[in-house]
Amino acid sequence: MKSPVFFSDLKVESKKTLLDKLDILLDRVDLKGKIRGKDLVAIKLHFGEKGNTAYVRPIFLRRVVDRVKQYKGKPFLTDTNTLYVGTRSEAVSHLTTALENGFTESVVNAPILIADGLRGNSAVKVRIDKPIFKTVNIAREIYMADGLIAVTHFKGHELSGFGGTLKNLGMGCASRQGKLSQHSNISPRVNEKACKGCETCLSGCAQEAISMRPLQSKVETKHSVAFIDPKKCVGCGECILTCPTGAIQIQWNETIPIFQKKMVEYAYGAVQNKKERVLCLNFLTQISPACDCNAYSETPIVNDIGILSSEDPVAIDQASVDLVNAQEGNRSSKLLGAWKPGEDKFRAIYPEVDWNIQLAYAEEIGLGTRKYELIRI
């Protein structure tokens, strides 16, 4: 059976604005029927790294918030802290970045919560019993919410080919430990040259997996350096954030196919306790070649297309990638080929990344279907 995916282009009239079209998209996926009075509804989005300009604008989030409130729900905007060290790696900097990018309560009409806590370790283990993971670590505030609306800026991505709803749910709803387990299959490593021997990481490791030992290289130093015991390390990633010199680093060693499957299993876990109460919105605007985690936005690879809504995270991503590939490519962008309509824009940017993997695996584990009916409003 095909899943319905509703689509609005960006053509507007004085009596029908893009915000009015967004209302229709929410009605078509039965937003009202999925909200009970006093439900806590998580609106999961990406606030954008500081310096990035391609994220979904706050004015659209305000419209989604107002509609949830219209049906007596209690919405909040949320995202999780990043694994890498940047302007969103802990809740204080993350909230500051969100505010600087326009996501204030006075604008969006809802509170903003960082779903995995101050340092990214507030999580719930969710049992999924899938081939790779038996349990996944989902951000606590997302897990505790009654409903979930994934608002996604659709764009290219260095590891998954494209970043859509599946990535927003899988990577975006994972705690720090969950993100690390998707990106790596071994413990973080210590850059001995950068380690100052301050021992800050020792008190931050609940597993006591970190100790100090003499420098192993031939470089002379008066202090010991940190060492992470891989047998004790559980991969929580706490030490990456607490190290003041950035000496503890992620080992980005997971293969791209396995990374995509891990991400999909996390997306499955993120919606497990909210079946029939998850909605997806994909914004096909400013379709940049790379993730909004970058502190900049590059020239879009195609012209703006529109907005999609669906209850099926797999179908909406399949429809989104099909719509992008159906466009003529922007020759002034990073796109180095596939300029003709129908050619694969994402493989042209990342030829080593097969984005089909995430969609095929999501369908295989029962997260949704790649078969869809595109319904234009």
Characterization of the model:
The chain has 377 residues and is α/β, with parallel strands linked by helices. Helices cover 29% and strands 19% of the residues. The chain contains 13 helices and 16 strands. It has helices spanning 18-28, 58-70, 91-100, 105-108, 140-144, 165-170, 176-183, 200-204, 238-242, 256-270, 313-325, 345-349, 356-364; strands at residues 3-9, 40-44, 74-79, 112-114, 123-127, 135-139, 147-153, 155-157, 161-163, 189-190, 210-213, 225-228, 248-249, 278-284, 306-310, 372-376. The strands form five sheets. The protein has an eight-stranded mixed β-sheet, sandwiched between helices. A hairpin with a 3-residue loop joins strand 8 (155-157) and strand 9. Helix 7 runs antiparallel to helix 10 and helix 10 packs across helix 13 (356-364). The two termini are 21 Å apart.
